[in-house]
Amino acid sequence: MTLIKIKNVSLVDRAGQRTHATAIFQGSPGDLIGIFEEGQEEEVGNNNDDDDDNNNVTDRESDTIVDGTGCTLLPGFIDGKVETGSVVASLDTFARFGICTVIDMSSNDTDADILREVTRAEIGLPRYLASGPPALPKSQPSSSQGQPQRQRSTTAATTTTTATTTTTTTTTPAVFHRAVEVVQTREDAERFIESRVSRQDGSADFVGVVTGEPDLDNALLSALVDGAHRRGRKAVAHAGRAEGFARALEAGFDVIVQAPIDEPISEELAAALAAKGVVCVPTLIAMRQVVEYLNGSRVQQQQQQQQQQQQQQQEYEDDCRGTRMEDVQEEGQESAPQGRAAESGLEDVSFDHALTSVRRLHAAGVVICAGSGAHTTRERGLPFGQSLHEELELLVLAGLSNLDAIKAATSLTAESLGLRDRGMLQPGLRADLVLLEGNPLVDIRATTRIRRAWVQGIEVNLQ
After folding, report:
1. pLDDT, position 142
2. How far apart are CA 432 and CA 410, in angstroms?
3. b/e per residue, 180-206, with b = 16+ CB within 10 A?
């Protein structure tokens, strides 16, 4: 058994801070086997009290000794909301940023299967869990039948039909999710859940459902939640709008991702969510990017309108002597492109709404978990790994303490998503560890100053 000892280090986890401590863990791969505060005897073992020779290894030299002076040891980070696509290299990137577990809430099944297979075949990579694309519950006329539709969000509307699946693209841009599966009947809902949990290559670890779009079927939302719970899966609501939070509460979702940007949630709704034990993964950095994307399109729209009006002004002066200028301007405004914000139904968006919502949720006692929403969308990608550390800064900006932000990326996410073998510095748990220079309780940006990291005891190559 390879033993690694980190001495003279500060420990920070859900229990708070412990200084001048020692951590001992297995390294090939393995678990934490001892945490000792100053003055405690460093005795580790195999939990077999009848075998004294194996229990008492205090005289044995550790295979590796790391001096942790001036450093802080944290549990490995968990990114509670990503979309890796088929980017296998993302796993190495996550690890270099101290992220030992990633939760993919959006990638399609084929891509998720690829990453699952890679993590099964190679030790030392972050644990990868996935839900597959979320369901979009919209009812249809009773005469319509068939399998759940697969819908990909773009800016062009087309439909392609095969023998079993209808693939639909809509005029809604890929603001919150790139692909969804449309569920239109209770039978569709059952088929969707069954397809999520009984896949041969890898069952979904969670069930995702969109709650933040207009004109959703509330009965189908409840049916999807019930189906997920019957099959032992947590139901995750993809919100993005305040209305999506209210729908998620009514339908009984366990987790809500994406803070609202159309308006802040009310204090009353925050209190109700806390009373029901609903967990929130606000993905603030992703929502900030969505706001910038939509508002950027509005600026572009205004510039296009201005250019069109200038052109029409010139035409008016040359050819339209009898036409009133006001009529030309009105025609130009009517014919101007509507832009991404209008197409998405989100014309008055603000990142402040997301920050205010997180502040109210946290004050009400809702568990806040950290997720970056990192992805590779061509127009506006969010970098893997780095984005989670920026998310921690935004959570602090929204009112969480530094310790609460660290817990949001470690123990709280582990507990909330049922990952009970990680997230704490505790003997018997996975040796997912991050050694930082400095103290993140003083400066949350210290989470980026990673000196060494281990995924289940296997050291990460930080280069």
Report:
1. 42
2. 10
3. bbbbbbbebbbbbbebbbeeeebebbb
